[in-house]
Amino acid sequence: MFLRNYWYVGAYSDEVTCEPLGRVLLGEPVVLYRTEAGAPVALEDRCAHRLLPLSMGKVIGDAIQCHYHALEFDGTGACVRIPGQERIPPQMKVKSYPVVERDNCVFVWMGDAKDADESKVPEIFGKLCQDGWSATKVHCHVEGNYQLVIDNLLDLSHLATVHASTVGSMHVADMANVETERDGDRVKVSRWTMDVPAAKTYQQFGNYESNIDRWQISEFFPPSYFRINNGSAVAGTGAREGTGEKPWDFWVCHGITPSTQDSTHYFWHLGHRLWTDNMADVEEFYEQCYGVVGEDIAVFEAQQKTINLDPAAPMREIGYDAGPLLARQIIDRLLEEEAAQKSGKAA
Length: 347
Ligand code: FES
Ligand SMILES: [Fe+2]
Prior knowledge:
By secondary structure, this protein is an alpha+beta fold. It has helices at about 145-155, 160, 170-175, 200-205, 280-310, 320-345; strands spanning about 5-10, 20-25, 30-35, 40-45, 60, 65, 70-75, 80, 95, 100, 105-110, 135-140, 175-185, 185-195, 210-220, 225-235, 250-260, 265-275.
């Protein structure tokens, strides 16, 4: 079950070209491409004739041609050509999805098209596109359920072990002061770890000679977006008040789009004020961060494998699960509301 009445990241802008891109979003096959004028299009990736994915075909002008019998469908999903046949039956069409392109992303509306409201496109990645900032991004396909990713990002104590060779140290699990707040359907988990030695990445790029105060502020909002600020300053110099010495921080924004029940598209976008003009340093920082993403994905995929062996196996809770549990409650309630809305419409 997925929340449908939302804008999801379908692809980064630079992934959508005049070559068709096939992707499964919320269990539905979707093909993305651009028209001659450059506008993104999202259509059902399943030819109305014999169900071949349209993404195996090619874009001709503003339409996409199926690879099998060369039927063509325009950006609205209407069939506009059947070779050797004048008449086009009205049912020969595919679903088209509303799309909005913003902040280097193509957002796709996965609910009823008539409910698509452009004003609800999330303000998520724009922060990372500022003057004087540097940013990088990756799209990963994860063989794991999207809620495993949400759990992970609302409990950053896992840095202690999963990312011990770069951004983590045991202090963030053992010594953090954690506060969980709810604002409507948003969840914010703030972790402060005071007066501890810098983990490797923080030491290397923050260039600290003494202990640090370190923060990890993770904000979730439905259906599955995150904005996370990680940073540090010299211990005892006012990090919490924003006046700490040698502040070093970065933001990571995440668009998490379910693909199937046990796979997920993970759009990860990191940005920061440039702390150096040595771009080799910045590149090395990014390499460490890509490594962190890979370490998380290894965890999600291993979890999913054990879940698949026995989907009924219970998950037990610890104190740090307050944030993840809140997010799960919010998603469950919103799923119930969508189901009730749908059955009300059907009645
Ligand atoms: S399956 Fe697409 S044209 Fe026949
Ligand atoms: Fe992680």
